[in-house]
């Protein structure tokens, strides 16, 4: 008989780890839950891969960043023994290639069937690869991607060998900037290449981007705005350079690609509703099939703050929150209770060299940037507000305190009215600290 479980979590990332924790807190019985993951390690905090794994001093290593260490300290670091202790089956290095969800069956690559009563899809997203776009020589050795712990281990070895040599990072987003920072502090001569007008266009304005690009330049990182059309390789198919659209090329002993990610929503074609590339869910994170839920990067869900506008949110905070909420949703359904719909405010953050920033809400409407006069080559506190239809809908802050970031989070939930943009610029962070009500729950 195929193995059967009351609950199955498909995927072994951040959302899976937090869902498992919530199951245990809610009274999970031994043998009820299985986690299926194609990775070889128990769920872990994925941001550590780009923010700490490549540090030359005190690098992040497992078991140090298993989930859910960020929520409860070392006592809540859940390695394989924690899952065994609570009777949770970890099916690692097990790849699911499909299944019949109406029959509540999953099919693995080894042709095994796994049955479930309730399924949580937490397959996350996968790095976009240049081979998918048939970029010439993009399958050469020395071209790296970063998505899983195994990728980080391989990349770490390559970085150590590249010290003093040239490396090219493709992509000016989170991964590109964080990997670029890691390379340069490891003594690698680093160039970041991207086609957009400025780095991290998803969040930054041109003025904000200029601060970070100047800071990186001071650390020895070069930025080039250009499109990549291929790679130079030697006779052994090792990468030696990056070809740009203008006909020039950059020398490269190694290349790291961080050009985006896409949701892993391809396993069950025509079985679940898809929207914006993710599995469409309602406010309780239920998909279009009963007893099947989706969380994290792979779920397109309604955002209450924006009138239930459907969005994908590829961020670790959403993975953590949705992983815990989905279990609360399941428990409520089992107990015939009604709970509030999932309530999430879009959020992004990053650590880049010795700078730290957080963003809440939407970067739409009029942008008011404040504090740029305070910025020096060593950094400094500055931020921005986005105002649309007279309301503050987005907020950004560099080098803030915990209280200041919490004030911004409350501010975006309240969306206060603003009529004087000049006064908003003059007030800076004081506006959020004064206006945001401490009573608003995050």
Automatic annotation (TrEMBL):
GO MF annotations in UniProt? monodehydroascorbate reductase (NADH) activity
Monodehydroascorbate reductase 3-like C-terminal domain ranges (all copies):
345-432
Sequence similarity: Belongs to the FAD-dependent oxidoreductase family.
**UniProt cofactor(s):** FAD
Q: What is the lineage of its organism?
A: Eukaryota, Viridiplantae, Streptophyta, Charophyceae, Charales
Q: Which PANTHER family match?
A: APOPTOSIS-INDUCING FACTOR 1 (PTHR43557), MONODEHYDROASCORBATE REDUCTASE 1, PEROXISOMAL (PTHR43557:SF5)
Q: What class of enzyme is it?
A: oxidoreductase
A single Pfam family, by name? Pyr_redox_2
The protein's name is monodehydroascorbate reductase (NADH)
- Alphabetized UniProt keyword annotations: FAD, Flavoprotein, NAD, Oxidoreductase
Q: A single GO BP annotation from the record? A: cellular oxidant detoxification
């Amino acid at each position: 008989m195929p193995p059967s479980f009351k609950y199955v979590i498909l995927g072994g990332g951040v959302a899976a780890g937090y869902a498992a924790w919530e199951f245990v807190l809610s009274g999970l019985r031994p043998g009820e839950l299985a986690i299926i993951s194609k990775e070889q390690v128990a769920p872990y905090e994925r941001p550590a891969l780009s923010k700490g794994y490549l540090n030359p001093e005190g690098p992040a290593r497992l078991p140090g960043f298993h989930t859910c260490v960020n929520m409860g300290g070392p006592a809540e670091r859940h390695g394989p023994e924690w899952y065994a202790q609570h009777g949770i089956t970890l099916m690692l290095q097990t790849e699911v290639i499909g299944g019949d969800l109406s029959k509540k069956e999953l099919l693995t690559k080894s042709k095994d069937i796994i049955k479930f009563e309730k399924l949580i899809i937490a397959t996350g997203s996968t790095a976009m690869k240049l081979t998918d776009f048939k970029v010439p020589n993009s399958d050469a050795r020395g071209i790296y991607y970063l998505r899983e712990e195994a990728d980080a281990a391989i990349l770490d070895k390559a970085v150590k060998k590249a010290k003093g040599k040239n490396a090219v990072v493709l992509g000016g987003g989170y991964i590109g900037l964080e990997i670029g920072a890691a390379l340069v502090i490891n003594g690698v001569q680093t160039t970041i290449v991207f086609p957009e007008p400025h780095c991290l266009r998803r969040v930054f304005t041109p003025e904000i981007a200029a601060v970070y690009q100047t800071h990186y330049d001071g650390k020895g990182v070069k930025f080039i705005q250009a499109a990549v059309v291929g790679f130079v390789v030697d006779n052994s198919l090792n990468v030696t350079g990056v070809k740009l659209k203008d006909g020039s090329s950059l020398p490269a002993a190694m290349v790291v690609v961080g050009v985006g990610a896409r949701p892993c929503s391809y396993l069950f074609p025509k079985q679940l509703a898809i929207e914006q590339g993710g599995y469409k869910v309602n406010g309780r994170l239920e998909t279009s099939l009963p007893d099947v839920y989706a969380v994290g990067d792979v779920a397109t869900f309604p955002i209450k703050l924006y009138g239930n506008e459907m969005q994908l949110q590829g961020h670790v905070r959403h993975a953590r929150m949705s992983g815990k909420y989905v279990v609360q949703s399941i428990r409520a359904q089992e107990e015939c209770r009604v709970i509030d719909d999932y309530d999430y405010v879009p959020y992004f953050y990053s650590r880049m060299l010795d700078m730290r920033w957080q963003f809440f809400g939407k970067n739409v409407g009029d942008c008011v940037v404040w504090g740029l006069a305070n910025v020096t080559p060593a950094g400094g506190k500055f931020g921005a507000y986005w105002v649309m239809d007279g309301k503050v809908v987005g907020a950004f802050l560099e080098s803030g305190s915990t209280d200041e970031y919490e004030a911004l989070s409350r501010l975006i939930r309240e969306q206060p009215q603003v009529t004087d943009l000049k006064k908003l610029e003059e007030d800076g962070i004081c506006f959020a600290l004064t206006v945001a009500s401490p009573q608003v729950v995050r």
